[in-house]
Write a structure and sequence with these properties.
Main location (chain B): membrane
Bound molecules: adenosine-5'-triphosphate, magnesium ion
Distance between the termini of chain B: 48 Å
Protein name (chain B): Sugar ABC transporter permease
Helix content of chain A: 10-25%
Family (chain B): Belongs to the binding-protein-dependent transport system permease family.
CATH superfamily of the largest domain in chain A: P-loop containing nucleotide triphosphate hydrolases
CATH topology of the largest domain in chain A: Rossmann fold
CATH architecture of chain B: Orthogonal Bundle
Radius of gyration of chain B: 27 Å
Largest sheet of chain A: 6 strands, mixed
Number of helices of chain A: 8
Organism (chain B): Jiella mangrovi
Oligomer: heterodimer
Keywords (chain B): Cell membrane, Membrane, Transmembrane, Transmembrane helix, Transport
Largest interface: A-B, 22 and 18 residues
Radius of gyration of chain A: 25 Å
Number of domains of chain B: 1
Number of domains of chain A: 3
Structural class of chain A: alpha+beta
Largest sheet of chain B: none
Number of strands of chain B: 0
Strand order of the largest sheet of chain A: 6-7-8-3-9-10
């Protein structure tokens, strides 16, 4: 039985419809990450699960029980807010123990639970402080501590790391992952940070404009994006796209011709009607440059080279369209140089030009 | 500026007039304000305080001499004064309590969204704009069975056996001005509490409701601690204000019946402007001033210790 079942859920704010028939079934102990551009409805979905927003249509089932009309306190969930939402007039220990105190749990048990959580999160020396006497990272830990002292049916996280600096974010990301291993609790995590999504998720839910575009493991979404939106959204630097047309078949295999005259002896087994419009996608890290491009490579002009330390992002142009390649290691090209470029056929993603559906 | 300053340093004795001008400049600028404050406030205050040690009765041409502490000795033995002091405590405590409680409830209601909230907010703040003198007259009429509906309503509800004017009932008379004062003063608390409520972040309430807090618990654990500093200041200000506030009483009951609604402030007013005994009135006023200062000091100390602990 699924821990959380979201069935055909709709949400409107007055006339504005922000979620369209969302279906999602979450297994016990699973770590689900919701990603999508700003305003696509991730927080709204999370808040509906928490009980902070009313459900306009459909139903939400937690632990086998329909919770549409249940207030938040009866859903037994824990949530970590982007702003942390700590109680400013309570100490760290007070913040963490509040939910337990409300449940009238014995004092000794509360003390043990708080001490345990404080230990896990490295907050032990700070338990008597108040939130305003803490740094941003420490506050974030208190917010996590408040969630883990009890045993909720699920953890809800709404961009918990977005107010931290890059370094701290990496560190907390790893801690969240460890915490999840240790507690094994069902989690739903909202972020628009790609790396958080890829590293934390058992399954990623990619959303756009209130609809789910794809649900799958991080590898699935990366290697076989279901449509053009997911392909462009997952991965950084983003996938390159080229408009193309299917040309008359050559020995049973469709041939593809791009606008600037590149031809691909296309992917075996793909049958396409001739002159069908489509979009070819290729990830920057799969573009081969220079020597690696080998025989039959095209000439392109380097626009810009952005070293990232581990490698470099090379911007180049075919005809007049700019693309990016990720080159591992040191890049010796400079802006204005000409460079050999190859796009390996087996790495191509093909999408319908009109509805963006994946074709291969 | 720098140029002229270095010029002066170089030639210290050349232009003494300019140096003098620069030195008195700040005093010249602030002089008008200082003179006005001194003439209309400080001087009368000091003169008024000296009255407490003099025998000043407007209708007695032989009065005016210094009498030392005679006025205070008379005050110490004045039963009317003690009655007024007792009435003041009751008047102030009841008025502040109801103004605060109802003002807070109103603020809580106005803090949640509903259609027409803007208009409701504007209406709620209207009593504040009515002059206290006018609202006193209004309420006196409302309580008067000849022209006002309230006694008839109370009779219909069975609270009263027949429509009478509570303002002429010695046991109930104080409630008349208190009701008027509560009506008139609610907006003050509603405005200040609403402003404080609106500064509480909504996600803290959300976090609490997920932690398992119901509406009452959220009020206790979040709203009250957030409001506490504002409540302390508002209650302090209001208490001092109401203890000094004689308008409604003078207009509605004039201290009667049988001095049962006489508070210290209205007693001062009556002594000074009806009996024209300014010396004695001034002595009472000084005692009231000292009492209110002690009260304020205690509240401030209390607030400081509470804040220091928080
Ligand atoms: N209380 C509200 N009233 C009206 N519209 C709202 C309300 N809350 C959210 N919306 C709208 O619903 C849509 C989805 O908002 P939501 O906060 O879920 O986006 P999000 O995916 O979390 O975005 P972000 O990544 O920026 O946090 C947005 O268009 C937003 O304007
Ligand atoms: Mg959001």
């Amino acid at each position: 039985m699924a821990a959380i079942d979201i069935r055909a859920v709709d949400k409107s704010f007055q006339k504005l419809k922000v979620l369209h028939s969302v279906d999602l079934s979450i297994d016990k102990g699973e770590f689900i990450v919701l990603v999508g551009p700003s305003g696509c409805g991730k927080s709204t979905l999370l808040r509906m699960i928490a009980g902070l927003e009313e459900v306009t249509g459909g139903e939400i089932v937690i632990g086998g029980k329909r919770v549409n009309d249940l207030p938040p306190k009866e859903r037994n969930l824990a949530m970590v807010f982007q702003s942390y939402a700590l109680y400013p007039h309570m100490t760290v220990a007070g913040n963490m123990s509040y939910s337990l105190r409300l449940r009238k749990i014995a004092k000794e048990k509360i003390a043990t639970a708080v001490a345990g959580a404080a230990d896990i999160l490295g907050l032990a020396p700070l338990v008597e402080r108040r939130p305003r006497q803490l740094s941003g990272g420490q506050r974030q830990r208190v917010a996590m501590g408040r969630a883990i002292v009890r045993e909720p049916q699920a953890f809800l996280w709404d961009e918990p790391l977005s107010n931290l600096d890059a370094r701290l974010r990496e560190q907390m990301r790893a801690e969240i992952k460890k915490l999840h291993r240790r507690l094994g609790a069902t989690s739903i995590y909202v972020t628009h940070d790609q790396i958080e999504a890829m590293t934390l998720a058992d399954r990623i839910v990619a959303m756009e404009a209130g609809t789910i575009q794809q649900i799958g493991s991080p590898e699935d979404l990366y290697e076989r994006p279901a449509n053009r939106f997911v392909a462009g959204f997952i991965g950084s630097p983003a996938m390159n796209f080229l408009d193309a047309q299917a040309a008359p078949a050559n020995a049973g295999h469709a041939r593809l011709v791009t606008e600037d005259g590149l031809t691909f002896e296309a992917i075996p087994g793909l049958e396409l009607p001739s002159s069908r419009q489509l979009t070819i996608g290729i990830r920057p890290e799969h573009v081969l440059l220079g020597e690696a491009a080998g025989e039959g490579a095209k000439e392109a002009t380097v626009d810009l080279v952005e070293p990232t330390g581990m490698g470099a992002i090379v911007h180049f142009r075919f005809a007049d369209i700019s693309h990016q390649a990720y080159h591992l290691g040191r890049a010796s090209w400079r802006a204005g140089d000409s460079v050999k470029v190859a796009l390996p056929t087996e790495r191509l993603h093909l999408f319908d030009a009109t509805d963006g559906r994946r074709l291969n | 500026m720098t140029a002229s300053a270095s010029l002066e340093q170089a030639q210290p004795d050349r232009r003494p007039l300019k140096r003098l001008g620069l030195r008195v400049e700040p005093y010249l600028y602030s002089a008008p304000a200082v003179i006005i404050v001194a003439t209309v406030m400080l001087v009368p205050l000091v003169i008024g305080m000296t009255y407490a040690f003099r025998d000043i009765r407007l209708l007695n041409p032989f009065s005016g001499g210094f009498v030392g502490l005679d006025n205070f000795r008379r005050l110490a033995a004045d039963g009317d004064f003690y009655l007024a002091l007792k009435n003041t405590v009751f008047w102030t405590a009841a008025s502040v309590f109801f103004q605060f409680t109802l003002g807070l409830i109103l603020a809580l209601l106005l803090n949640r969204p509903f259609a027409g909230r803007g208009i409701a907010q504007a209406l709620v703040f209207l009593p504040w704009a009515v002059p206290s003198f006018l609202s006193g007259l209004d309420w006196a009429w409302l309580f008067n069975p000849v022209v006002g509906p309230i006694p008839h309503w109370l009779t219909a509800l069975g609270v009263m056996s027949q429509p009478e004017n509570i303002l002429s009932d010695p046991d109930l008379a104080m409630w008349g001005p208190i009701v008027a004062n509560v009506w008139w003063g609610i907006p003050f608390f509603a405005i200040t509490m609403l402003a404080a409520l609106q500064s509480i972040p909504a996600d803290i309430y959300e976090a609490a409701s997920i932690d398992g807090a119901g509406p009452f618990e959220r009020f206790r654990a979040i709203t009250l601690p957030f409001l506490a500093p504002t409540i302390a200041i508002a209650v302090l200000l209001r208490t001092v204000w109401i203890a000094n506030f004689a308008d409604l009483i003078v207009v509605m009951t004039n201290g009667g019946p049988a001095d049962r609604t006489q508070i210290v402030a209205s007693y001062i007013f009556t002594t000074a402007f009806r009996r024209l005994d300014f010396g004695y009135a001034s002595a009472i006023a000084m005692v009231l001033l000292v009492l209110l200062m002690i009260y304020s000091l205690l509240i401030v100390i209390l607030r400081q210790t509470l804040l220091a602990r928080a």
